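ARCHIVE CARD
CATEGORY: sequence design from structure
SOURCE FIELD: tokenized fold
FIELD CONTENT:
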């Protein structure tokens, strides 16, 4: 196996585990629009990383964290609806990212891969970053699983039991920001949300428990990423769109199975 294919497979497995598990909470908490917004902010993170020299990964985490903190602060003030706040920040971040890239980008800047992903360009450093983030997120999910699940399923009961809603909301948003920081290279800025919401949407058809849904979501994500990656290599397609098409096919199949069994 060629080295670049081996690295791509390793990255795909790691990102599938990250997106498949976190995506369940995105579905349960009805935060699809938030994940869409923070993925758009990733373009600002990329441009900031290129301009500052900090590196794309670190700048994605920094911008995502700032984005999440500002959203939580504005949500607490309750002078605008959540979708309005997310829409404002999403479009501002996306526009700023485009403007900054227009100033610093050159002939060697691959805008297409930033928007739609290019997993075949993954380096060894990228692999290390993916699995470091995977270990961090897995540890956080294991430690806070019950509390996050309780806040998701019955927020009033969780608050009555003394859980700090704002803390766990911010924690979850930061976890999404970390997931986005490692997903840009595989599916690109514009398609990250699909990797977070479609696998759990497929798994929801078959799962009977929250933990079962998370496990099945990871499997669905791995299958779709494997199909998309294979199609990308064989037919020379953009990696991100190929993966999303595979996810779409699995979603349609799951709905057909659900209707037949109903």
């Amino acid at each position: 196996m060629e080295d670049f294919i081996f690295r791509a497979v390793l990255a795909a497995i790691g990102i599938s585990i990250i997106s498949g598990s976190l995506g369940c909470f995105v579905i349960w908490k009805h935060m699809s629009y938030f994940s869409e917004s923070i993925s758009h902010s990733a373009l600002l993170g990329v441009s900031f990383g290129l301009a500052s020299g900090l590196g794309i990964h670190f700048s994605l985490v920094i911008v995502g964290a700032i984005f999440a903190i500002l959203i939580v602060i504005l949500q607490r003030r309750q002078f605008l609806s959540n979708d309005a706040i997310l829409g404002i920040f999403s479009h501002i971040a996306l526009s700023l990212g485009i403007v900054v890239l227009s100033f610093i980008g050159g002939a060697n800047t691959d805008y297409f891969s930033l928007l739609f992903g290019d997993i075949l360009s993954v380096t060894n450093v990228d692999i290390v970053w993916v699995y470091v983030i995977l270990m961090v997120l897995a540890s956080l999910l294991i430690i806070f699983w019950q509390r996050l699940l309780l806040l998701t399923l019955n927020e009033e009961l969780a608050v009555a039991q003394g859980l700090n809603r704002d803390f766990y909301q911010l924690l979850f948003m930061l976890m999404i920001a970390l997931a986005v920081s490692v997903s840009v290279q595989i599916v690109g800025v514009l398609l990250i949300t699909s990797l977070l919401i479609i696998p759990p949407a497929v798994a929801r058809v078959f799962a009977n428990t929250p933990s079962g849904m998370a496990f099945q979501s990871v499997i669905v994500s791995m299958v779709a990423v494997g199909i998309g990656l294979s199609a990308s290599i064989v037919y020379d397609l953009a990696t991100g769109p190929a993966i999303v098409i595979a996810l779409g096919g699995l979603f349609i199949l799951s709905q057909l199975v659900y209707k037949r069994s109903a």
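CARD ANNOTATION: The first helix runs from residue 3 to 28. The chain has one domain: 3-261.
SHELF: design records, drawer C
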